[in-house]
Amino acid sequence: MSQSSEQKFSVVIKKDCPTCEMIEPVLTELLAHYPGNVSVYVQDDPSFPKSVENKIDDTSLEFSYKNNIEIVPTLICSTQSKETNRTFGWDKAEWQKLTKLSSLGKDLDDFKPGCGSKTQEPGMEEQLAARFDKELLLSRNIQLADLEDEIESCYERGWSDGLPVVPPTTVRVIRMLKGTNRSPSEIIGNIPPDNVPCSIEKVAINAVLAGCKPDYFPVVLASVEAALKDRFCMHGLLCTTYFSGPVMIVNGPVIQQIGLNNGINALGQGTRANATIGRALQLLIRNVGGGKPGGIDRAVMGNPGKYTFCFAEDESDEDWSTLAQDQGFDRKDSVISLFAGEGLQPIVDQKSREPDSLVRSMAASLKSVVNTKLYGGADAILVVCPEHRRVFRNAGWKKEDLRIALYDNLMASGSDIIVGAKGIAEGMPKKFENKIISKFRDDGLHITSTGSKAGMFSAIISGWVASGEKGSQLVSQRI
Amino acid sequence: MSNTIMLDPTAELAPAERQTLPRLDTLKDATIGLLDISKPRGKEFLDEIEKHLLTLGAKVKRYRKPTFARVAPKELNQQISVECDAVIEGLAD
User: Fold this and answer.
1) Do A41 and A86 meet the contact criterion of CB atoms below 8 Å apart?
2) CATH node for A3-120
């Protein structure tokens, strides 16, 4: 036997391709020269081409998928089951060279491009991966009964936070994993409260449940990594009887890339990225970590932000440092910050046109965090609206000026806030009676900016009473 | 069966079955650890428990978590398991 006769050829074609139709005589010629060594796979119509015997039906696309066919026709040469060469479309000289048949297709044009393989149709790759790549995902498969409603079955299995979830089909999970280059089997960390090792695959499944797009997945992964930092104390935050949950603030180019809302209603409903990224972390903690309300989650009331609480900063003012910059990152970095907080306390000030007045106004409101008589316990985020920011900027203030002025205005005399003062039993311990106390611990007040251009309404996101080293501190993670 | 296959989003853990440790037959001469989780008034509560334990003939050792918001440090757990026959954790709220 000559060496060439040991060579095998596989040709992948489809009827719905003029080039594949054109090369029909080439295929018969090839089969005649290499009997038993040529396999013709047809993606769409197994009766095509009529003149070729023993075509192989590849309407399942298994062969095409497993051999990464992108264009039809594709000619694959192999020796001892190992691919040695391939060409696609019709390139007469190349086909002649690979088949060692110098007159192959001599009557045809020299060159005619092929068509897209059926494996390349939109959404097809994930379908095929789900069908043929059994090693890719390791999670338990759950097959539904014929009449079982997908969404109801997710509820019944306890996977939902109360709102409908997107059923995590294999195809959807594979699509989600396209959002990262990380291996599905990589362990991202241990998820509290059960401290269960969690794979990228499990994060992807929960991101599907939450309604994320694959584009959001890197942000979700960064949020998980941030939540697992020791400084954030996710375990304690989950267990607390207090209101708090994770609040996410996103900075950097990723805001525009995935369409996070940092404008009108930035902290409200209506934007898929904001809504689903925050929700994905909560669902992961529920489903992988085992943290459920009434179980480990002992919140007296909780807060609506525990469904999801994610927004982006308005970074339109180049001279106003972003939250990420305050944490040591560059403006060009995409960063997610997590804060243990809850709720939203408005600061209405439509009259202040000078920074000094506005600072006093904001500081007075900030003193209400947790309780007007409790100091140094909870951190807070001051969310400055663009119109309030303009008041500072018009006077030449930068964020640091605001921070310093706030600090000066956030002091209180101990005698006003100790237990029993002003006829209120709650308050600071009596030992502070003759001291001047700051409302927030050092590094306990963060400043960010978001919202629409119209309206002099800033806000306070109040933090967990166990803020600081004894509990949770703001953490930031590069995306 | 339908063709819909979903992937399990949970940790897929079987519920852990933990054997309870042997119960103490008597408190007499047993060393009982009292763990204060650092919540307000936890000390007063545990002081009362300590009095009762002492009248029952037990020895008492007191421990304290650095902060209630975080899980107890491993070293503290190990110290208690070495030094005590049983432990009572004082949860506030």
Assistant:
1) no
2) 3.40.30.10
